[in-house]
Fold this protein.
Amino acid sequence: MTKQEIIYVLKDHFQATGGFTPEDSDNLFEKGALDSFGVVEFLNFLESRFGTQIPIEDITEANFSTVEAISELIRKQGGQG
C-alpha cells in the first residue's frame, strides 16, 4: 500500500469511529481522537486491517500523534491492506 492509501484508510477509520476526519498533521491526542485507552483498540484495528503487529518499543506518542506518523510506522512494519 502507498502512504496515501494508508492515510486514506486511517482517516476513514477516525471518521467512522469518532466522527472526526483529521488532517495529516493534526495531533490526534490534542484533538481527542486518541487517548491512552483508545490506543489499545486502535492497535487492534491496525493489526487486523494492515496485518502488522507494532513492536512495544514503537508504541510511543510520537509514532501515534498524527495520521502521517502512523502511516510511516505501518509502512516501516511492512503493513499491507
Summary: The mean pLDDT is 93.
